[in-house]
Batch of 4 targets.
Target 1
Amino acid sequence: MNRSGPLALLHTSPLHIPVFDALRDEDHQGLELRHMVDEELLARARREGPAAVAGEVRAALDRAVADGARAVLCTCSTIGAVAEEAGAGIPVLRVDRPMAAAAVATGPRVVVVATSESTLEPTVALVGRRPAPPGAPYRSVRCWSTGPGRVSRRATPTGTSAAWRRPPTRSPTPTRSSSPRRP
């Protein structure tokens, strides 16, 4: 492995580039970053599932290796597991792995909040695979919100998981009832 090469970052949105450049500038000035952006990876993974983009992810990782990357950070939680499992010959880390480890180590309840539904299942699976501290059960509560607004919640017993989802929007169809409708 080339320890002096750049760190490649696999993004599914160009919005991540300035974020990771700023993080690098805070603590690792001089570290060379190589940003690879492929928005279609996320679009297709949302439509067909993360496994559907395994070939394209592997090709992106192969390009990073050919360009001399010493490691790759996948900044998309939806395809992170696919990237880690690709066998690129260099370390590949998904951006949410350290978060999952810290969350499970912090306490008995883990809440996952995702801004994209496609991120929910891979992140909950990652948290579920992390070993809890000895003698400390935890529960994973899955959440999804499309942004500001109402979010519904279902409580679950310890050791299980539930889904929080934004309630569907109601159409503004007028009703003939004289009493107000209750949700």
Note: The chain has six helices and seven strands.
Target 2
Amino acid sequence: NPFFSVMKKVEIIFASALLLSLIFRVTAHKEVAIMFIISILALLILYTFLGFALFNGIRFRNIFISQSYTAIKPLFLIAGIVHGLTITLLLVSFLFRIQHWVYGTLMMTISSVILALFLIISFFKMQQGSTNPFYKESLTRSGYYLLVVAGNVAFL
């Protein structure tokens, strides 16, 4: 079952750590800053370099096997790369906003708009009955990170 692949387990662990650190930060536990930074950096690396595989259901051990890509259209690979880089930009904007650096809000706005587009497209494709794993993965991750953005905007 691809849901239990190593990459997805790592992603779930660090995404949960990110969410927990944001919750603890809001409740005045400032000592969770290290957990926040480590989880963001791990997710940055994961989405930057392996986003195309995560969004297209390719397991980590099959990334370098050419037969893994025969059933995937090139457009979905490109969309997976763009989606991964968009989430990366969003995570960088979290760091910028936490540090109150310039352009953190701008980066968050740009990445949120792109994620919202992915969310809308994925939602409508799923409603039309598409069984492509890209749409399900995109819908799940876009929804999760847009909820995290809403929490970030509301509390930081």
Note: The chain has five helices and no strands.
Target 3
Amino acid sequence: MFKSVPSQASNRYPRVCLIWCKGLAETIIRVHLIPGLGDTVLSKIQPQAIRKFYDQKKKEGGYSDRYVNYMHTILNAALSQAVEDDIIIKNPCSISKKKTKRVKKKKEIHVFTQEQINALLKYPTESWLHLLIFIAWGTGFKA
């Protein structure tokens, strides 16, 4: 199914990003997509098989939702290109798109106690660190 990574990237992205993205795409294709779906004929790929592939990668492979979404993006792009080239009629990835909820983790805020601030301010007043700590304290810095 995958012979090479098509370079469909335009001038929208910086060169470093394109190199990194191309490398990631090639790795995903070589390590995950070819072994997982490469033996299946394009016209025989079903959305259920794609969902099963994603679930296997998450559960057995221990890959994060974000990495599986990268896999989905690359597979979707390849199958979309196959639809445009009239190799297949419909993209099975568009049917099997799994939306993963992003859970925002609340960062715990650590505020310095008065004792901790007093200990920090005991630095010699000639030190530039004293000035930096004093400004940070006066503006409400957090750890």
Note: The radius of gyration is 25 Å.
Target 4
Amino acid sequence: RQYRFRDYRFSLIFWVVALAVLGIMVIGSAQHSSQVRQIAGLGLGLTVMLLLSFVDYQWLLNFSWIYYIAGSILLLAVLFIGENVNGATRWIQVGPLTFMPGEWTKLGLILFIAWFYGDDPARARAFLRGIAQRYETIGQVGKGGISENLITTTADALRKRELIKLRVLDNCELSAREAAEALAEATGADVVQVIGSRFVLYKPNPDEPVIELPRAK
């Protein structure tokens, strides 16, 4: 997915920079010699952040296994070539740069776990159930059962919302499960959940997606 510049959250960038500058000022007040390196690190970090922010993170997930392997190698490398700083061997020095592999590995591990479990249907369903808890019931199945009008209105709602919650009234001859399955078949949706008299349907809209499921590919 291509990101649009007009949707960029400049307020988030502002607060990130503000916090970083505050941290640099605090460090500079205690050890002025380290302030120049901190400013250089801030500039480099902002550049990388801005570049990556325009890259679809789903594409980045395709290389998750590389992040995992590289992070593991770097952690092992600390045991052999790590620098001892203040009694702790956690750093690796490459030329003028010194970094902690553990910090980079944290990010890689998050991406790897997201990639590893992203295509699990059970987890996708659990994700939708979690969202549906906040949804209000927008439709009901009454005495008329699964009518053409109900199918049309449900299809329209699914196209706009992708995830909807409906209720089966007491005068309906169908159970909640039967109504959910029948309406899902008529609209091409999936039954996410049936609880009591209520059920949740999901149908993705490829043209105007509303909900982004966790996925790996």
Note: Strands lie at 83-85, 88-94, 97-99, 137-141, 163-168, 190-195, 198-202.
